[in-house]
Amino acid sequence: MNRTRRTATLALVLGGTLFASGCGGGGGFEDGSASKPPASAKGPAALKMLIASSGDAETAAVKAAADAWAKKTGNTVTVTAASDMQQQLAQGFASGSPADVFYMDAARFADYAKNGSLYPYADQVSDNSDFYESLRQTFTYEGKQYCIPKDFSTLALQINTDSWAKAGLTDADIPTTWDQLEAVSKKLTTKDQAGLGIGVGIDRLGAFVVQNGGWWLKEDGSAPSANSPEVTQALEWVQKNVKAGNFKMSNELDSGWGGEAFGTEKSAMTIEGNWIKGAAKNDYPKLKYKTVELPAGPKGKGTLQFTQCWGVAADSKAQAQAVDLVKSLSTVDQQMAFADAFGVMPSRQSAAEQYKTKFPEDAPFIAGGEYGHGPINAAGMEQVVADLNSKLEGFAGANIPQVLEGFDTNASAALKK
Amino acid sequence: MTTTQAAAGPGTSRAPRRGRRGEGQRQSVAGWLFVTPTLVVLGLFLAIPIVMALWVSFSDWNGRGNPFSSRVNLVGAQNYAALLTEPGLSRQDFMISLRNTFYYVIGVVPLQTVLALSLAVIVNQRFLKGRSFFRTAFYFPSVVSSVAISLIFLFLFTGTGAINQFLSIFGIDGPVWFSDPRGLIHLVGDWIGLWNGNRPPAALENTQVMSLSLWEWLSGPSVAMSAIMLQVIWTTAGTFMLMFIAGLQDLPTEVEEAAMVDGANRWQRFRAVTLPHLRPTILLVVTLGMIGTWQVFDQMYVMTQGGPAKTTLTPAYLSYTVAFNQNQWGEGAAMAFLLFMLIFVLTSVQRFWLRDKDVARERKAERAQRRAAKKAVKA
């Protein structure tokens, strides 16, 4: 009898706390899904903002911009720089009271759009069409654009000018086709230095795929298309050059990414985005290099775009204010201020000229806004992409048709879910 | 008065019994009061999360809002099926993580136990000079944060790092440790001419068992995983050394002296006196080692993120990425429970193996006797 009483008490205590925790936090058992019109907090709103900051410069710039808006409108904004963005975002959504405004990565966007965490507000932005079409497409899920792109970056070709001169090459030799890239790589290859160092995975190799007119998924994201001649030939061309020693993957060069191999002069060229500017300035100040557009492939120019958008939470209690904040952070002037502070490229076409005048050396990156391809942005693809990347790690020895066939099988299973 | 009557035993009079019951009740109330803080804390941070995770592992919760809200549906064992019975990426990854961790456990647990025991025996010698220095030195890695040690190991094991510099003295061209996915068994087989690593035997490569080919199952730990194993053995041996020292200090000197008088040499004394005496400690160390190694997470999170080529993926790290990065919370939770069951079963098996055989035999004999007696009565 004693034992049953004890068990009963325990059950009561546990049950009670369970019930309390079940009801609390999430705002009851029913949280309404995203719907127009936006939830507008009465009086001054206290907004929370979660950013994945690249460093102090970025955090300070975003804070200053948010404070300026707060002052003007009488609201308050608390900016938090995440230490682990994925985890903190996920925790926020699970708790039911996520940050009101946050950086949303293109590669993660579709999953969050699918589960209803994001508030679609792009139609409330009057000059939405000023943002690059391809970027807006990246943040479109099932025909609806959810958020506006914050900024973007593209891949281009970096050349170590010292090695270039030493190999007897001039500006006239800057490669504009695959054949020329192969030729200069061969010339630049020495005993201690690879001609071209390429970062591991599809975030670099994908550029060659785009240049050959292929893509991993069909354009509407409904079905995989990696096991196609365009993709296979592009990867096999790179592999052929890796086997011949003209190109080397960064993991063969004992480097974490292409920029490291390039900075430590283990490769004379690399393919990276505009973030290499900061890395070169901070970690390899002696490095002399220049950036040119990627050479065109058989099907024309192509590069990859990486971008984030200003996400607004579906569970935000002050969506109207959040959208207003995002609008103020996305003006041409503000985007230029961010570009000044931490070197990102404005996502507005109307800011492109201003940016090019101010940062002429970045013209090759900006050019990629016209012909670049966004990342894979279908829901449920994270695992499939990770698997593809792991199989391409030992790139020289990879059985490409088999890898791509595996990708198609996995991707069609994931897309059906 | 009450005390004397109570001392007289139950049933002597009614009044004292009532008094005693009142006191008992008061005592039990006080008892409950004292344990309430612990119960609340345990319930809040242990019991409820476990119940929630169990629920999530049977649901289609997508990470948004409350897992107990009406939008979340029960999907039965679907998440478990994706990991165990449905061929696909989820099962493939889970099996890879089990394979990796299996080799990891097989390598780490025996080595760290042997190393810890040897260190303890060395440090426990009564005539060793600077005993406390060595004890501290050996224990030191265990108190340093595993993240800090992981970062140091990252530098030690780079392609041009200290380890490879050291190997090059002997003319050995060391691998780029943390980006080398080649399996050790594959390498050894290749080296002794059992097979050609680049062209694995078709019989092994074409037989698929649970989403992986036999060739993949037989890979052994990758070079990258081996570097992590070395680190873990080095860091944890100190902790377990401490437990062995405690066990060794419990060993009465008389027993050892008696063995000496009987003419046992050093090795015999160790085999026949010290080791049997340490059986409970060994059981503890192996059990803790098993549980800890199956749950390995920090090193993968800091150093490799599961790479190269998924060869350092472990169930704990995979469950984290599947939940947080892939939004498949149900599968992540299901993985955690499968890992729990695996550890539970393995620990029970290992407890059974390492039980005191004499005691077990005695109990068995007792039971047999009782059965025989019962039979005899019936007859």
Give the topology, please.
The complex is a heterodimer of chains A (417) and B (379).
Chain A: H1 2-23, E1 46-51, H2 56-73, E2 76-81, H3 85-95, E3 101-105, H4 106-114, H5 133-138, E4 140-141, E5 144-145, E6 149-154, E7 156-160, H6 161-166, H7 178-188, E8 194-198, H8 202-211, H9 229-244, E9 247-249, H10 258-263, E10 267-272, H11 276-283, E11 289-292, E12 303-312, H12 319-329, H13 332-342, E13 345-346, H14 352-358, H15 363-371, E14 372-373, H16 382-391, H17 400-416
Parallel strand pairs in A: 1-2, 1-3, 8-9, 8-10, 12-14
Antiparallel strand pairs in A: 3-12, 4-5, 6-12, 6-13, 7-10, 7-11
Chain B: H1 2-7, H2 14-57, H3 78-84, H4 89-123, H5 131-143, H6 146-156, H7 162-169, H8 184-191, H9 202-205, E1 208-209, E2 212-213, H10 214-217, H11 223-250, H12 253-261, H13 266-277, H14 279-294, H15 298-304, H16 315-324, H17 329-353, H18 357-378
Question: Describe it for me?
Answer:
The complex is a heterodimer of chains A (417) and B (379). Chain A has 417 residues and is an alpha/beta fold. Chain A folds into two domains: 46-153 and 306-373, 3-Layer(aba) Sandwich (D-Maltodextrin-Binding Protein, domain 2), CATH 3.40.190.10; 156-293 and 380-416, D-Maltodextrin-Binding Protein, domain 2, CATH 3.40.190. Chain A is 45% helix and 15% strand. Chain A contains 17 helices and 14 strands. Chain A has helices at 2-23, 56-73, 85-95, 106-114, 133-138, 161-166, 178-188, 202-211, 229-244, 258-263, 276-283, 319-329, 332-342, 352-358, 363-371, 382-391, 400-416, and strands at residues 46-51, 76-81, 101-105, 140-141, 144-145, 149-154, 156-160, 194-198, 247-249, 267-272, 289-292, 303-312, 345-346, 372-373. In chain A, strands 1, 2, 3, 6, 12, 13 and 14 form a seven-stranded mixed β-sheet that branches. A five-stranded mixed β-sheet of chain A has the order 9-8-10-7-11. A two-stranded antiparallel ribbon of chain A has the order 4-5. In chain A, a hairpin with a 2-residue loop joins strand 4 and strand 5 (144-145). The radius of gyration of chain A is 24 Å and the shape is globular. With 379 residues, chain B is mainly alpha-helical. Among the domains of chain B are: 36-60 and 71-76, no CATH class; 88-145 and 220-356, MetI-like fold (Orthogonal Bundle). Helix content of chain B is 71%, strand content 1%. Chain B contains 18 helices and two strands. A two-stranded antiparallel sheet of chain B has the order 1-2. In chain B, helix 3 (78-84) crosses helix 17, helix 5 crosses helix 11 (223-250) and helix 14 packs antiparallel against helix 17. At the A-B interface, helix 1, helix 3, helix 4, helix 16 and helix 17 of A face helix 2, helix 4 and helix 16 of B.
